[in-house]
Amino acid sequence: MVFSKHGISVVFSQEMVPQLQSTLLICGFPGSGFVGKLAVDHLIQELRAKHLADIYSTSFPPQILIRTDGTAELIKNSIFYFEGTGPNPVSLLLLTGDSQPANPDSEYFLAEEILNIAAKFNPRQVFTLAAYITGVFIDRPRIFGTATDIDTVKTFQEKGVLAMDGGSITGMNGIMIGIAKMRGLKGVCLLGETSGYVVDAKSSKSLLETVLSLIGMKVDMTNLEKRAKDTEALIQSIEQQIAGRTGRILEPSAQNRSSNTGYIS
Question: Higher confidence at residue 60 or residue 233?
Answer without folding.
Answer: 60
